[in-house]
């Protein structure tokens, strides 16, 4: 290795100190390295001081770049002619020239450039950049390079590789990525006179880095896409989703959960998740979450979460723990559970209904057997006496049969009322007036030692009720009160207006609106909760055998329900009983009270009457009675015959028709056809059962009325006259 190369290496390693002196007018470079002093004067080694190491000169290869440097006119630059260069500049150039890396010595206040062959190819100048100013040479990247140049001129070395700098070496050439070294160079006085600029191409590394960066960016884009898809799924899913921290606090929830439960995000974020869980389910949920946190997954569980309004929704959950958050996905199965509950309840009701039907059939059989026995026995004795020509006690037999028939009529009315198939003839009523009109009946039912008290609203709303059924309900309640008080006590009838703002007593009951309440209260022995639960069942009674049919309260319950109301019982043992009823308010005007007519003084005046009924025996009896009372009666047994007679002989003064008729037409349809031909035709409907109630609009038409079978023939006659005179 030449002395120059060793000096170059030592200087670059920073382990050699250089001093420049002048001996006999010639510059002398003195180097000291590891205790060895080397003195070079004009290229000739001096006599050894302590120890002198000499290297024989080695012939240099042909150096084109060196020739360019020697031939270049340096006098036109700030460096001056080459022979006048300082020793420090010469050594720096020598070191730069022999470097295998592209290098340049940048010297002087103008930052004049002296470069080697590798450096020459970096810049698009021809034939080279010798003598150029460094800032002009690198003007295209000066904003990035300038700060490092000034740092080198301040005496600080730098190696800039992150990020590498992208440079263009010439037209049509590929851009290069390079790292740069900036090493300060000192003059003989130790001042920074310039710097060594070294360039290392890192294009391959940058390309590899770019490749990996593109892969990383591609992965990031995939992650971002998955994040977007996950966010869309989170936002659009119909299933509820919730994330929970290991401390069991709500971290986040998706819109589906907020919509289902009514909460806002700020209301539940950060709260303990168990606060949303139904108290009965919290232990199970806590165990399931603990298992999920430990084993990272869990089986499906069903639990209830609280809605903002206080009720609960049932969810079926699946959950997974990723190490930081537990994510649970739940499907709202509230409707499924409710449907299952409804089916179970319906099945239970069917079973109860079958049991009730059995009780009903047994009760009906018992009651009818008693009644039919009385009727059959009386008729048998009556027939015997007539055959024998004896008339004693005939009236007694007739009375027994008549009484049994009346009791049978009451039984059927109660059964139909309970089944809500009792045909009603409701009309607007002044409630207080109607209750007062019923007072004589109620007092006779209660007996002499029972006291009846009234607490009626001053201005009660009107109601739309069937008067006869209302009176029957009150009579039954007063009869029960008399027996509960052992025929000595107090009964209070209370009426008042009541406005419901919510469903009563639940969503299956009465809707919000205006109602008139009627309470019938006694101070008797009261009822137990078990008896209250069964009180409205038909034939249920706590009375001894033979002292009641058990149909009174069931009839009341059926009548109130069929009238659009609701009935319930409030009672306790030894604290009396209160039967409460709510009837819908009627906004129609209340008609004036009808005048009382004496039945025995009236006769028909030969009016033509068409009687339609498929019961031959009943039709014959009604025809005979009405004929005796002055009507001209034409009777038929089916709808087609009725329409045919009406077509040939109509219109009639009055048509009396059963609702249920054979022949494919009902009494309602017969009436509509007749009124299409004669709109003013008056019609009296009679029926013992109406599977479909008669249209209210039809009954509200003038000249229309309804009577329920069985009825006394005298009542039929009176109702017929009332229609004809109306």
TrEMBL record:
Its EC number is 2.7.13.3. Residues 161-214 form the PAC domain. Residues 239-296 form the PAS domain. Residues 608-724 form the Response regulatory domain. SUPFAM superfamilies: ATPase domain of HSP90 chaperone/DNA topoisomerase II/histidine kinase (SSF55874), CheY-like (SSF52172), Homodimeric domain of signal transducing histidine kinase (SSF47384), PYP-like sensor domain (PAS domain) (SSF55785). The keyword Coiled coil does not apply. This is histidine kinase. It comes from Pseudomonas inefficax.
């Amino acid at each position: 290795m030449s002395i120059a190369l060793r000096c170059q290496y030592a200087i670059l390693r920073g382990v050699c100190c250089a001093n420049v002196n002048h001996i006999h007018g010639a510059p002398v470079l003195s180097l000291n390295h590891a205790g060895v002093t080397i003195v070079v004067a004009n290229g000739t080694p001096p006599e050894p001081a302590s120890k002198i190491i000499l290297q024989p000169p080695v012939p240099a290869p042909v150096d084109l770049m060196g020739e360019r440097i020697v031939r270049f006119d340096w006098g036109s630059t700030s460096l001056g002619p080459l022979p006048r260069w300082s020793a420090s500049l010469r050594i720096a150039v020598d070191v730069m020239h022999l470097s295998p890396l592209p290098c340049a010595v940048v010297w002087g206040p103008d930052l004049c450039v002296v470069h080697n062959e590798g450096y020459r190819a970096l810049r698009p100048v021809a034939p080279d950049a010798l003598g150029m100013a460094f800032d002009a040479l690198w003007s295209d990247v000066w904003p990035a390079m300038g700060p490092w140049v000034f740092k080198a001129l301040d005496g600080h070395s730098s190696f800039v590789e992150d990020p590498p700098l992208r440079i263009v070496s010439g037209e049509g050439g590929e851009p290069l990525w390079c790292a740069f070294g900036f090493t300060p160079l000192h003059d003989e006085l130790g001042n920074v006179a310039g710097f060594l600029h070294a360039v290392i191409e890192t294009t391959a590394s940058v390309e590899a880095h770019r490749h990996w960066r593109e892969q990383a960016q591609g992965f990031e884009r995939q992650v971002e896409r998955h994040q977007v898809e996950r966010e869309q799924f989170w936002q659009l899913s119909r299933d509820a989703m919730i994330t929970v921290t290991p401390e069991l606090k709500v971290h986040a929830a998706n819109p589906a959960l907020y919509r289902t439960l009514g909460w806002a995000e700020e209301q539940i974020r950060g709260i303990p998740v168990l606060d949303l869980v139904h108290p009965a389910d919290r232990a199970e949920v806590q165990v399931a979450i603990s298992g999920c946190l430990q084993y990272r997954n869990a089986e499906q569980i069903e639990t209830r979460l609280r809605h903002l309004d206080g009720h609960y929704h049932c969810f079926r959950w699946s959950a997974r723990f990723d190490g930081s958050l537990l994510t649970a996905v739940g499907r709202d199965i509230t409707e499924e559970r409710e449907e299952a509950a409804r089916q179970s309840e319906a099945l239970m009701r069917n079973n109860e209904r079958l049991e009730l039907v059995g009780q009903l059939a047994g009760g009906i059989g018992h009651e009818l057997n008693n009644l039919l026995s009385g009727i059959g026995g009386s008729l048998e004795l009556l027939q015997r006496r007539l055959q024998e020509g004896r008339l004693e006690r005939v009236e007694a037999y007739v009375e027994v049969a008549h009484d049994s028939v009346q009791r049978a009529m009451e039984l059927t009315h109660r059964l139909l009322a309970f089944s809500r198939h009792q045909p009603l003839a409701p009309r607007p009523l002044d409630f207080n007036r109607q209750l007062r009109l019923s007072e004589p009946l109620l007092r006779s039912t209660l007996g002499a030692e029972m006291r009846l008290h009234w607490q009626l609203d001053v201005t009660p709303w009107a109601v739309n009720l069937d008067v006869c059924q209302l009176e029957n309900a009150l009579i039954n309640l007063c009869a029960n009160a008399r027996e509960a008080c052992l025929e000595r006590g107090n009964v209070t009838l209370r009426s008042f207006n009541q406005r419901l703002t919510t469903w009563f007593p639940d969503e299956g009951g009465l809707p919000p609106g205006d109602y008139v309440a009627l309470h019938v209260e006694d101070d008797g022995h009261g009822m137990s909760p078990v008896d209250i639960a069964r009180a409205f069942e038909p034939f249920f009674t706590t009375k001894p055998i033979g002292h009641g049919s058990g149909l009174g309260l069931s009839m009341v319950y059926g009548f109130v329900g069929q009238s659009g109301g609701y009935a319930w019982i409030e009672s306790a043992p030894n604290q009396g009983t209160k039967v409460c009823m709510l009837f819908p308010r009627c906004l129609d005007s209340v008609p004036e009270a009808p005048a009382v007519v004496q039945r025995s003084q009236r006769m028909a005046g030969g009016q033509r009457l068409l009687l339609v009924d498929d019961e031959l025996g009943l039709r014959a009896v009604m025809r005979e009675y009405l004929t005796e009372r002055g009507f001209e009666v034409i009777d038929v047994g089916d709808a087609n015959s009725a329409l045919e007679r009406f077509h040939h002989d109509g219109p009639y003064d009055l048509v009396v028709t059963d609702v249920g008729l054979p022949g494919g037409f009902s009494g309602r349809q017969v009436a509509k056809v007749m009124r299409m031909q004669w709109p003013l035709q008056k019609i009296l409907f009679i029926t013992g059962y109406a599977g479909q109630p008669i249209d209210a609009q039809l009954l509200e038409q003038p000249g229309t009325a309804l009577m329920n079978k069985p009825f006394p023939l005298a009542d039929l006659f009176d109702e017929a006259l009332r229609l004809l005179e109306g």
